[in-house]
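Human: I would love a firmer grasp of how sequence relates to backbone shape in proteins. Could you go through the record with me and say what the backbone is doing? Here is the record:
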Amino acid sequence: DQEEALELADRVVVMSQGRIEQVGTADEIYDTPNSPFVYGFIGESSSLPVKVEDGQVWIADRPIGLSALHAPQGEATLFFRPHDVDLVEECNGCIAGTVAASRRVAGTRRVELEIGGERQRVEIELPVDHPAAQKTRVAFRPRRWKLFPAA
């Protein structure tokens, strides 16, 4: 139980197929995962295929407003957590998607968005009173995120 491990342990070891992936405190493991596996295994996350070009993160043919000055150029995967996003009104450099599904999760609304023509799906959390409905458009930008080079 990942949640219990993060809550109780002084140090956490994340393993995959008999190999140690990362060792650290709960905060280190959750906040700075060192691989796509750890990012997805510890806590909920979404990911999107992107590319890094001229120090910016791009989806398809447009920048999404995230600076990646120290990331290698080329194909990558953008990881973020559903609760670590900011909604934006004007989508001038953001991620925008169409609501495919919506459900209540405690004091928030969890929506599944279809992004781009490839029908890539991500989940984000919205305030419970957000007017997102089926087929409406929602624009956001990850507040905390991490890039990993494409495999």
Summary: Residues 2-8 form the longest helix (7 residues). The chain has a mean pLDDT of 90. The CA atoms of residues 91 and 98 lie 13 Å apart.
